[in-house]
Structures are given as structure tokens and as C-alpha cells.
Design brief:
Layout (H helix, E strand, L loop, with lengths): L3 H7 L36 H12 L61 H10 L8 H9 L4 H9 L6 H13 L7 H6 L7 H11 L32 E2 L14 H4 L8 E2 L21 H10 L9 H4 L18 H12 L4 H5 L9
Antiparallel strand pairs: 1-2
Helix pairs in contact: 2-5, 2-6, 3-6, 8-12
Amino acid sequence: MLLLGSFLSACDSDDESDVNYRPTPFELNAPFYLGDFEIPADNPMTEEGVTLGRMLFYDPILSRNETLSCASCHDQSKAFTDGKALAIGIEGRVGDRNSMSLANLLWVPRFHWDGQFQTLEQQALHPIQDDREMDLSLDEAVSRLRSHSNYPKLFTKAFGEGEIDAEKIGKALAQFQRTLISQDSKFDQYIRREYQPTQEELHGMNLFLTHPEPSIGLRGANCGDCHLSFNTGGAREALLGFHNNGLDTDEHLQEGLMAITGNPRDKGKFRAPQLRNIALTGPYMHDGRFETLEEVLDHYNEHIQMSATLDEFIREGSNQPIKPDEPIRLHLTDEEKKAVLAFLHMLTDEKFINNEDFSNPFE
């Protein structure tokens, strides 16, 4: 990645007016075991585009009173979350959703807790306009950037000749966010045979990945049914990665995915987030109702609420035979819960939260 100082210096040159000028392709470092991904054909990643996106991500110029940036709700030290139950926007306005981590977005098929956006480019523009977040019209954002001393040159470097517009803002932000790959946790090192987990970590991993089947004595924590593969995230196929995980009864269910699809069978379904760096990203759930991972495990173990759209994996998930009219319980032991927590801590990636390429370029 280009250093910011050298990039700004390069903008003083006249290279962008050269008909032969081309941005520098960005070499994306993505491990093969995380799976295939696609970069939009109309937004190829370049060094100049990524660097521009990084600046926009950290620049409060994109908020109405210039007090907030994207990074205000997505702090690198917290794996690009904010440590709050609900996002806090301009003038202290409180949103209705928890700020999700931005790690490994290359493998996310739809964005936001309710799947509102199909592309990262679309999602990137939403917080700028939302009156509970940055509360700035895209027209005003474009006007500010056009009149800025540096940004016109930066956009020309990234996208060639032409006026700054909202589409280019979204593209630059998306390019930067696609570089935020977490790939060096103990779990990754284990996959690459560079780390030998403890017995407790291995036990927790096996429990995490296993759907329990009491009829054959197979014990499991039932996590891997929704948090899939090496990314520990939702399904890659469109809307399959959304689930009703038993937080509320029918009376209190929020719309969730139903607000997007209009299908009553989607009521109460929210995106199953990737669990990379999960120990750093509390509070948890779409509404931040759980402060700790222990509370999350207790929910799945003994506090599942029945509703019409409750996920079948959860309905059937128990380490004891399920009896009619009895509450759904996983029946994990304290030792098993401790082991699952040990595995979840294996997902913390210290290099990711300290990577200078992802940090604030203005500091």
C-alpha cells in the first residue's frame, strides 16, 4: 500500500493528465482457505483508490458538523466496532442497531443486520446520509470534497479525469474496507499448522462446530450451523445467512429481514455475523443486549425464546432428548461453556487491530 505522504506528494504531479496514466493495481492479500470472492468489475481495487478510501473513512468532513467519521463507530482497536450497545451518531443521537465489525467483508453477501444493502458500495454511503449517524446529504459531501485543497487530485489519481461524485465516494470507501482482512488469529495459525491449540481450545472448537445429537451421545454447542467455515460467518448464498436466534417471542420480534423481503417467514431474522475478533466486539446481538460472551452463551444454553420463525437448527439443538412442551435448552456444562469461550478467544487477531495500513492516516 502506498504511504499517505508519498501519495499526497505524487498528487502534485501532472501524471493524472497523461492519457497513458493508469492507477496502480492493488495486490489483495487474501488467504485461500477463506474462500472465493468477487471484486465488482466497475470498481477494481487500486493503490490510489484504497488510499483515498482510507482517508475518507477517517475524515470527519463527511459528517454534517465535521465531528464524526466512519471510524467513530468502527474503531480499529475494537476490530472496527465501537464498544457500545447501539451506535451513537451526530449530536449524541442513538441508533437502533449495534455497530458491526468490518473484518473480512469480502466474504459477506449482503450488508447491515437486516440485509438492506447488496453491495459494499451502497452500504458505504448510507451512514453519511442517515440523520442518526453522520447526517450529511451526498450533494453536500460532494461539494465539500470538490472544494477541498487535496481531494480533487486524490480522486483524479484514483478514478481518472472527471468530477467527484457520490458514486466515487462509495467506491473509494468500499475499496479500503475490502482490504480489512483478519487472517492471523490463533485459529488461522492452527489452520496453517503454525499453532497447536490447548486441549481446552480444541474441545471448544469441536463443540463450536458440532450440532448435538443426544441419541448417539454426540455433544455440541450448535454454533457452526450458522457461523460457518473458516470465516465463522453466515452463509454466502444471498439471504441464507439470516436467522431468528431466539432472542424474543412473537410478541416482541423485530422485523429484521422481513423489512427487506416483505416475507413474514423472515420476521426476526438478522444476519449471522462473522465471529472473527469476537472477544473484542461486544456488546453483542443486533441490539447490543448482551454485554459479554458469557451472556451470549447463557442465552443459547438456557434462554431461547420460542417464536414462529425460530431457526430450525436452534429448535433441534439440545444435548438432551427434547420433550414436548419443554423449553429449548442446549444443556452445556460449565466446563463445555468455558471451552467454547477459549475457542472464541482463539479468533482474536492482534496483527489486524494493529495493522498500520488500516490505521488513521491523519495521526
